[in-house]
Predict the structure.
Amino acid sequence: MTPAARRMKRRLERRQRDALRGRLGRQRYDHLINKLAAFMRREWQEDRVPTLLAHEGNLRHSVRSALCLQGWKWESADEIARDLVQAALDRVGAKRPTWLQGQREFEERFINRTRCKICHFQLPEGRRVFCSSECGSVFDARLHRVRYADEGRAYELIARERDAPR
């Protein structure tokens, strides 16, 4: 696709999205963003959810449902719901974690362990996750293999390691 054709396609998609927003009405669109953002912020500040992103799916579903009940087509309603929820997330300053931060290994750095993650021996004084540098190297090698494998191979490696006897 040529650059000019790509620009034309993006322009057409933008017009279609703006037409959907226009169907909702600018004031109503802004009002919904404010309501969604206020709800997200309140839930998070009152410690009802661990993150601002916690209600993203539920809110998208609720908005989409309400629009469908008002006669919108599912695809249009879903697109507007996605845009509304994303705008609300932007307004409250929600930031998505990186892929690495979303992995189990990232959070485990904050867990107080008594046994080695690899060999399960008692951790020596001053060690937090692994009993030795060898166990740490084994873990790093496993993580490296999974992280840099293609998608199908990564699933295979994870399944094999999960099912391996210890």
